[in-house]
Amino acid sequence: MARDFPALPGFYRTLFLYIEPVSTVSPAILAWFFPGASWFHHELIPSATAAPGPLDARTTMAIWQLGNCYLLLGLISSLVFRAIRDALPNNPEAQERILGAGFTALALADVTHIAASFIGLPDELKYSFGKWNPMTHGNITFVILLLSVRLAWFAGVGRTAYYYGKRVKVD
């Protein structure tokens, strides 16, 4: 049974407590274990050439560290957001203020991740969405969706706003 989480209701709760953590922990597992760093590296930019070759030690380390960053994002979404819900069950304003700080950091990371992923694509792929592979869509299309939903949350779309968007009385 889902616990009440006034600052993160309905669709927001489903996306940010379940879907986003799975979508960020999964790349870590793919990079570390199976299919592995070489596969992950070669999937970052869609290519017609198959059979990824071995990577040098520096590149392997960078891919594993990238996997660690993905794991961190998933853990924050999963564990920290649940801690907010559980520690402040009767304080939706505090829930929202803390979630908002986390969402601000994640939204800024979304923007830079989208930009880096798009800019890094070869020119012939940038606007050929049909040629993008699942990794490219995950890094650009899905992150645009996450950013859009974060912005909707800030705007109070589909939820009661307890802090963001409220007028603050100044004495």
Summarize the structure in short.
This protein has 171 residues and is mainly α. It has one domain (10-45, 54-155).
How would you summarize the topology of this molecule?
Elements: H1 10-32, H2 37-43, H3 57-87, H4 92-120, H5 123-126, H6 134-155
Helix pairs in contact: 1-2, 1-3, 2-3, 3-4, 4-6
Overview of the structural elements:
The longest helix has 31 residues, at 57-87. The protein has helices at residues 10-32, 37-43, 57-87, 92-120, 123-126, 134-155. The chain has 171 residues and is mostly helical. It is built from six helices and no strands. It starts with 9 loop residues before the first helix and ends in a 16-residue tail after the last helix. Helix 1 (10-32) runs antiparallel to helix 3 (57-87) and helix 4 packs antiparallel against helix 6 (134-155). The model has no long low-confidence stretch (mean pLDDT 92). 20% of the residues are buried. The chain has one domain (10-45, 54-155).
Biggest sheet, open or closed, and with what strands and sense? none
Figure out the total of helices.
6
Name the average pLDDT.
92
Number of domains: 1
Uncertain stretches: none
Rg calculated over all Cα atoms: 19 Å
Strand content: under 5%
Helix content: 55-70%
Give the ordered list of helices and strands: HHHHHH
Characterize the overall form: elongated
Terminal CA distance reads: 42 Å
Q: Please report the total strand number as a whole number.
A: 0
Give the structural class.
mainly alpha
Protein name: DUF7704 domain-containing protein
Pfam family, one: DUF7704
InterPro entries: DUF7704 (IPR056121)
Keywords: Membrane, Transmembrane, Transmembrane helix
